[in-house]
Write a sequence for this structure.
């Protein structure tokens, strides 16, 4: 669904006020005092700031508890406690992936996201339940958000026989990206895990986005194995490493050579800017030329209660985590949550320029930095030229 | 100013629904189906949760930029860059402490704070300007928030001759607490600095609240000197150490003996739960019996653009920083921002119980954990029995 629209008096990326003429879902002109073509709706920008649509580049649409009765979390401290608790309770908690992904998608759109990359659980207890549910949302909510799916072996790949076959099935079903998870810490067979997921990438000609929580030296070892395969298989520019806590190690002798290789192989990094784990240094990565994106990760799920799908708030977290205080630094966080995500998701026609898709967010503020720290709920979200959300009310409802 | 009020159908600390009868600013009864006394206003609690008033136990009311034109931060990376930039630009930026503290106070009240401890700059460039301005707000806005002042040598005490005399003047003028700052890193004379500020405590019979950003071994050394004086001068229970980054050291051999001494001397710890610095381990401190409070620190000032005075959001930051995921853990963050702050500020008659002052916040949610992660702007704030803020609108306006 595309639309035409004239947005008057809006400030693209906090620059001078302009009008933006959108024709059939694309930005046709950006100039002062554009005459409204006959029959085209006019939106008063009120001198507010327009930014390109926010990019939620890492979340788990299939398993949010959003809209369900409050879930009291009493889960144990280990990573495997959380993984097992979730898999074993998904049906009991009635976490229907189609419904839950629709709910989170509408919430994301309200907050200004126009694109989402979602990892989706693939495991032997639930088979294609998650993939089919999120695909239903992807197809059913295409008018407000573009969604791509990563087939994700959340419970491990080799340690649970049958999962690799299901991953294969998920790729056949139309997942856009191959996922993976902690080849040492979870699967305990880094060579086996990485050979399997890179094999899927080769079979289906698809990119990789692997969760790598492993810290320090162990994470650096896994990252090295990932880079080795990226180079050998000619997958430059087609790999994302999510979390990458090992890059937050305080030892430059460990981190700097990894960053140099990431840049050389054009491997992207996704960080949520976690406040409790070692976190990749965003400015250092950007300065080295590495593509960096961000995401909410799980939103109000059995892992933890946090999250609201607000990628402007996420930009603030990036700033807080990286000690960005100068305006030019704080704005980097917003770049990561917009153009950074678009570069990682290879979104064609992204940005506020003539000829690009008319996906944008209008928010009040004097400067981009003010947008980030204020996180105003007064947002107008435009997807392909149509206002799909206005001050917390969406054109769509979730089940 | 006190008032009488009957709040119907509200859930104190997310427990069963009750009515709360407030008489002359105090909670007179909490029970089911209380008959409304003649002439007493009735507030429908709508089954929402009531928590005791939030306690902002560490901020800087005198120097927020709140309500001013957007300030573009281009300051250098060092702590002294930020200190000097602020002191040298305060007049140019028209940071009138009376006006700015009033603005932040109203914002704090909107978010649910009923008590504030504010550090207030005392330096040779501005003398009593800050103290007088914040005292004006303390006296003028007493109906919505109780404020106490810490005389704070932000630019250093001994390194800038004349400051100690001004600190003495600030205590004479009625500051409730003596402040201090990084005796090694800023004043470069730990013995001299600590002897001077503990001397002020002795002279005026007042407690101490010292900023201690010093990390690792240096911070542990300064903390040790503080504890030595606390013991020698009989100031058990009268000292707060703010920030205390050294307690976030990963070395238990450094941290554990410090925590044991803090507990023994009943020295309180204030943490903002910073996401970029080493941060005190909140649960470990609470388990050891240490009083822990929290605060927003500077809100939108020349140091950085962040902050909105929301102590519910601060509780979330405490949870995120300490990896609190279980509901019982997340709720600890809210405890720190309510009863923890009250214990540190020695607020008499605090809490949701008969006989206590009727300072409370009503917010929608199923559980305390949901309050923390949702941070709803729909808040009703009651100060001494009077509804002083409702859904973002205060009974007071700021200049």
């Amino acid at each position: 669904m595309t639309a035409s629209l004239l947005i008057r008096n809006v400030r693209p990326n906090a620059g001078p006020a302009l009008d933006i003429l959108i024709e059939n879902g694309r930005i046709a002109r950006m100039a002062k005092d554009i005459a409204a073509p006959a029959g085209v709706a006019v939106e008063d920008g009120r001198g507010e700031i327009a930014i390109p649509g926010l990019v939620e580049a890492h979340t788990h649409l299939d398993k949010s508890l959003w809209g369900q009765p409050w879930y009291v979390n009493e889960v144990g401290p280990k990573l495997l406690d959380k993984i097992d608790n979730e898999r074993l309770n998904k049906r009991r908690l009635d976490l229907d992936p189609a419904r839950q992904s629709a709910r989170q998608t509408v919430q994301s759109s309200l907050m200004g996201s126009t694109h989402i990359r979602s990892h989706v659980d693939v495991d032997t207890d639930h088979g294609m339940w998650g993939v089919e549910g999120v695909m239903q949302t992807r197809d059913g909510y295409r008018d407000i958000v573009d969604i791509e799916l990563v087939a994700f072996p959340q419970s491990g790949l080799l340690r649970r026989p049958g999962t690799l076959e299901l991953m294969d099935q998920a790729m056949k079903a139309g997942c856009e990206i191959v996922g993976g998870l902690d080849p040492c810490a979870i699967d305990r067979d880094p060579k086996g895990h990485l050979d399997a997921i890179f094999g899927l990438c080769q079979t289906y000609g698809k990119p990789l986005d692997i969760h790598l929580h492993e810290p320090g030296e162990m994470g650096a070892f896994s990252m090295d194995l990932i880079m080795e395969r990226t180079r050998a298989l000619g997958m430059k520019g087609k790999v994302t490493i999510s979390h990458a806590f090992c890059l937050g190690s305080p030892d430059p002798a460990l981190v700097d050579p990894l960053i140099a290789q990431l840049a050389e192989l054009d491997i992207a990094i996704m960080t949520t800017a976690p406040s409790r784990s070692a976190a990749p240094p965003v400015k250092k990565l950007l300065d080295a030329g590495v593509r960096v994106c961000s995401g909410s990760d799980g939103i109000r799920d059995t892992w933890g209660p946090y999250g609201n799908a607000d990628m402007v708030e996420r930009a603030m977290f990036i700033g807080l985590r990286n000690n960005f205080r100068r305006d030019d630094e704080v704005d980097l966080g917003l770049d990561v949550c917009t153009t950074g995500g678009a570069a990682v998701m290879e979104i064609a026609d992204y940005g506020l320029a003539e000829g690009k898709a008319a996906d944008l967010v209008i928010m009040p503020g004097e400067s981009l930095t003010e947008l980030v720290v204020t996180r105003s709920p007064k947002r107008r979200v435009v997807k392909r030229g149509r206002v799909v959300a206005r001050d917390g009310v969406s054109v769509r409802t979730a089940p």
Notes: Chain B has eleven helices and 17 strands. The mean pLDDT of chain B is 97. The domain at 5-52+352-390 of chain B is CATH 2.30.40.10 (Urease, subunit C; domain 1).
